[in-house]
Amino acid sequence: MKHVIALDVGGTGIKSALIGSSGELLHQARRETPRERGTDTVVESVLEAAAELRAHGERRFGRPAAAVGVAVPGIVDVGTGTVVFAANLGWHDLPLGALLADRLGGVPVAFGHDVRTGGLAEQRIGAGRGTEQFLFLAIGTGIAGAIALGGRIEAGAHGAGGEIGHIVVRPGGAACPCGRRGCLEQYASASAVGRAWAAASGRPAADAADCVRALEAGDTRARTVWDDALAALADGLVTCLTLLDPGTVIIGGGLAEAGDTLFEPLRAAVGKRLAFERMPEIVPAALGETAGCLGAGLLAWDLLGG
After folding, report:
1. Residue 36: pLDDT above 80?
2. What is the pLDDT of residue 21?
3. Predicted local distance difference test score (pLDDT) of residue 24
C-alpha cells in the first residue's frame, strides 16, 4: 500500500504516523521531546522517529514511504525546509528538511509550520470545512495560529504569519524566549497556566490539567489562575478579530481539552471586549491532537500531486 510518513514536532511530544492515500491513519506513534537534553538530542529524536516509521512501513506494506511531511513550531522557511527560529525547542536556522531527506535515503520532504498544517487539516477535513475565513488557534506548550483567508492558509511574507502567541498583551510583563515581555503565551498557554497553578498551589509538579480539576472542584485559587489566563487570551483574541475579522475561531491544543470550562467563559470574555467587531463562532477543533500529523500527511500527498 502506498503511504507517507507524517511528523508533528511539538515542545513536549513528537507525534508520528503513516498515512494512506485517502488520509487514513495507518499507524501512530509518539515519543517525548527531550528538550532538557539539548537541541541536538531533539533533532536526533525526530530523525529516529522518522526512520522507525519508514522501517515499520516497509515491514507492514512491503514498500518504503513515498514522501515525508513534517510540521514544526516557530518560524519556518518552507521552500528550503529550514526551521528559522523555534523558541520552545532552541532551534535556529536548522535544515531539518535536508537532515530528514538524508536520513531516509533521499525521500521527498514536505515542510510546514505545525499550527498551519493543523489548520490545513481542520480546513479540509475538520471544523473549518466549508469556511473560507477562520482563525485556528493551538494552545499547548505555546500559542500559535493559522489564518485562513479566502480558503487559503496564509504563511505571511516571511513565514511568520500566525505567531499569535507573541502578541504583547501585558506590556512590560513576563519575559518570553522570543525576546519580548508580556507575550500572550506567557499568560494563556497550557504551560503558563501550569506554572501559575504550581505557584498558587505550592505543588511544583502541577500542570494545567490539575488547575482545571481544582477549578471544577471549587478551588478559589484555581479560579483566579484560570480567570487571569482567560482575560489574557480574550485580549489577544480581540486583537486578532480587529485585524482579521474571521467568521470562526477554532481552538485546539491541550487547553481546549477543558471543554466548556474554557469555551463558555472565553466567549463571554471576548463578547465583553468587542466594540465594532462582529462576534465570531468560537468552537473546539474537530481533529484533536491528530491535526498536526494529518496536516503533515496532507502536505506530503500534495507534494506527490494527490
Report:
1. no
2. 87
3. 86
Count the residues in the chain. Answer: 306
Tell me what the mean pLDDT of segment 161-168 comes to: 92
Strands (E), the chain: 3-9, 13-20, 25-32, 68-72, 75-77, 82-86, 91-94, 109-113, 134-139, 143-149, 152-154, 248-252, 281-284
Q: At what angle do helices 96-103 and 39-61 cross, to 10 degrees?
A: 40
Rounded to 5 degrees, what are φ and ψ at 274?
-75, 145
Residue found by looking up cell 491532537 in the block: 289
Q: What is the pLDDT of residue 306?
A: 64
73, pLDDT greater than 90: no
Q: What is the pTM of this model?
A: 0.84
Per-residue cell: 16: 508520528
| DSSP per position, 207-261 | -HHHHHHHHHTT-HHHHHHHHHHHHHHHHHHHHHHHHH--SEEEEESGGGGGTHH
CB 33, CB 89: distance < 8 Å: yes
Helix pair angle (208-216, 190-201), 10° resolution: 60
280 by DSSP, 3-state: which?
coil
- Nearest-5° angle of CA 226, CA 230, CA 233? 140
What is the spatial distance between Cα 198 and Cα 210, in angstroms, rounded to a whole number? 9
Q: Contacts from 279-282 at CB under 8 Å and sequence distance 24+?
A: 280/135, 280/241, 280/246, 280/247, 280/248, 280/249, 281/247, 281/248, 281/249, 282/248, 282/249, 282/251
The pLDDT of residue 87 = 75
Q: With beta carbons less than 8 A apart as the criterion, state whether 184 and 232 touch.
A: yes
